[in-house]
């Protein structure tokens, strides 16, 4: 196996399993750990993985995106804390957009049930979570359903969303960086997110620390467009400060 084949095998394993370990990869490919570290360094330079202590995990891109089912198994405790903290920022909002994805789904579960609320979403999962909330009206955007994320996209969704003026939008992304802003792999998803940003008076990003510094294919917003960023303490405080200098309040929970 040559170098390119090994690196492709490493990337395929990372995308299949969600992460890779240097020691296990060295055993599998029968090479030195330092060789694997160099491979991971190259893959990181190409924007395909993010390195961690002892391994790496895949970066979502135009050619790779995790499914909603996969997202429900990773960083669950952190996502739950993030969702609870984000829901507390609702203030006096009466109309709320909740994005697709597992963390926004947890935000929906944490929204107050004791007051009148209208929730707009492209996510079938979010709509299902809120369907039995007596004081919550749910408006599900129409469109083509993406099987991996169970959310609607395309012009039906964006046209419907463009007709609303929304008090608060809870936005997710596959990556957030100070240089490139908020990004996602799929252009159709990007359009829905961009329209949600335009339609909302207030915008809050929710996402675990692994999203930070990651860059995907389609850019739909700048960090400065956000009122707040809610993440976990895995994001170093110094890096949180750098993001806050761009405008939003950064909350680490």
Helix-strand makeup class? alpha/beta
Number of helices: 10
Biggest sheet record: 7 strands, parallel
The ordered H/E elements are: HEHHEEHHEHEHEEEHEEEHEEEHE
Low-confidence stretches are: none
**How many extended strands?**
15
Q: How much is the average pLDDT?
A: 93
Helical residues, percent: 25-40%
> In order across it, which strands form the biggest sheet?
6-5-4-9-12-14-15
Q: Describe the global form.
A: elongated
Radius of gyration: 19 Å
Descriptive key words:
253 residues, alpha/beta, three-stranded antiparallel sheet, 10 helices, elongated
Descriptive overview:
The chain is of the alpha/beta class and 253 residues long. The chain has helices at 3-17, 22-29, 33-45, 68-71, 76-87, 102-110, 124-130, 155-162, 187-199, 237-244, and strands spanning 20-21, 49-52, 55-58, 95-98, 117-121, 136-140, 144-146, 151-153, 166-171, 175-177, 181-184, 200-206, 218-221, 228-231, 249-252. Strands 6-5-4-9-12-14-15 form a seven-stranded parallel beta sheet, sandwiched between helices. Strands 1-3-2 form a three-stranded antiparallel beta sheet. The longest helix has 15 residues, at 3-17. The N and C termini lie far apart (45 Å).
């Amino acid at each position: 196996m040559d170098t390119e084949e090994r690196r492709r095998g490493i990337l395929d394993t990372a995308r299949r399993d969600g992460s890779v370990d240097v020691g296990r990869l060295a055993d599998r490919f029968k090479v030195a750990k330092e060789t694997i570290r160099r491979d991971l360094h190259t893959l990181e330079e190409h924007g395909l993985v993010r390195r961690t202590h002892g391994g790496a995990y895949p970066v979502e891109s135009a050619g790779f995106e995790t499914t909603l089912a996969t997202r429900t198994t990773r960083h669950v405790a952190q996502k739950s804390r993030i969702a609870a903290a984000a829901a507390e920022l609702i203030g006096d909002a009466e109309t709320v957009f909740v994005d697709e994805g597992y963390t926004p789904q947890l935000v929906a579960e944490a929204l107050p049930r004791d007051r009148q609320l209208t929730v707009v979403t492209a996510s079938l999962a979010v709509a299902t979570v809120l369907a039995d909330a007596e004081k919550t009206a749910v408006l599900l955007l129409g469109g083509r359903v993406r099987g991996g994320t169970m959310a609607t996209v395309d012009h039906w969704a964006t046209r419907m969303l463009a007709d609303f003026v929304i008090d608060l939008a809870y936005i997710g992304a596959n990556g957030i960086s100070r240089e490139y802003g908020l990004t996602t792999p799929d252009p159709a998803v990007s359009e829905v997110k961009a329209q949600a940003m335009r339609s909302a008076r207030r915008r809050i990003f929710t996402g675990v620390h692994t999203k930070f510094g990651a860059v995907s294919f389609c850019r739909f917003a700048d960090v400065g467009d956000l009122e707040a960023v809610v993440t976990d303490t895995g994001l170093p405080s110094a890096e949180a400060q750098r993001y806050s200098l761009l405008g939003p309040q950064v909350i680490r929970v």
